Amino acid sequence: MNDDIGRLADLGQRLIEAAKRAGADASDAAVVRSRSRGAQVRLGKLEELESSESDDLSLRVFVGRRVATVSADLRADADRLAERAVAMARVSPEDPYAGLADPSRLAETYPDLDLFDPAEIESDALVETARTLEDAALGIAGVTNSGGASASFGATGLVLVTSTGFSGARQRSGFSRSVSVVAGEGTGMERDYDFDSRIHFADLEDAAAIGRRAGERTVRRLTPAKVATGRYPIVLDPRVSRGLIGSLLGAINGAAIARGTSFLKDRMGAPVLPQGLDLVDEPALARRAASRPFDGEGVRGERLALVEDGALRHWLLDSATARELKLEPNGRASRSSAGVSPSSTNVTLTPGALTPAELIRDTHSGIYVTEMIGQGANLVTGDYSRGASGFMIRNGELAEPVSEFTVAGNLADMLLAIEPADDGDERFSVVVPTLRIGEMTVAGR
Length: 445
Prior knowledge:
The protein is α+β, with helices and mostly antiparallel strands. It contains 9 helices and 19 strands.
């Protein structure tokens, strides 16, 4: 994309000028270029080989306090697109909080976050990697079938131009490998998976290692027992604990606060995590999944302690949401074809001192949850009830697999009770270790 940044920035500027001619008071334009290539195999046979490229642009215009966003491809006529956007804005309801970001907050310099790897992976190599993933998983005793394996890479670039003088570009690459397999026969079948995803190709984990781990995880789930209904100490695998903290991030999103649809809407300054724990959002970390030199409005983003020493300190805010809540924006705008809204970047929960094995040993008895099923987290009330599977904890060790039980509680209580281990994984945008969340109600047999 480097060769095209200048041309795409010129296109964005032409859209801004066309919007002004059409009667817009202010506007911004984003041009997104993406490309990807991937291969999927199942039982050694190639099922899909895809390669795609796309170029999309969006123009957001403001006429007074009325706003409209239109999207098109790069072949669109700038004047017609701008006229359409302005016409839409004029018949839209007024939004007293609409407007571009304050020019004083716009990024002027962009740190090199090392987010782009120019490596090109040929289709044959992707197919071979997918087969290696699957072969390794199928080689684990007890694995009986495959759900498929895939390998892919891609890149996305964004150019953003605003009528207040901002012009910036950023690009990111991504490489991934994944495999899912089945163990057992008939009604006793179990399924699991493993994967890796990185910004740089050289950082990817070995395909055979990923495959073996997927097979081992699946076999461990065979012949699950039922859990007796009751209250149990619960320990969450990182796959699940990331989702729990994701619910917290959803509840402190400024858009939810402005709508009054968060169970934390009146909790600013109050404890939401145990004392001693921080939840920090950092958009400018090198080689990290959600890093960005500027946000969806061109605003620079600084390190932000969302939760500090257990107490809630900040909402996630874009400019419009900040105006509505009478607060200062904090550079957390995310842009899509539908417009701009707040979102987090790289979020890290303070790790604990114990390893996962030590945390389980300290728990002594309870349930280690490896998978949650369904969308049972209500961010309006905080009510939490989800289907689950995992392993019993007996005498401080993982014991027999268990499935088909429901875990229920309240998010506010769960978050205040968490005890983290030390195994946060920086591959993910939300870095959360294994968590113990105290006793919860479990509905089983």
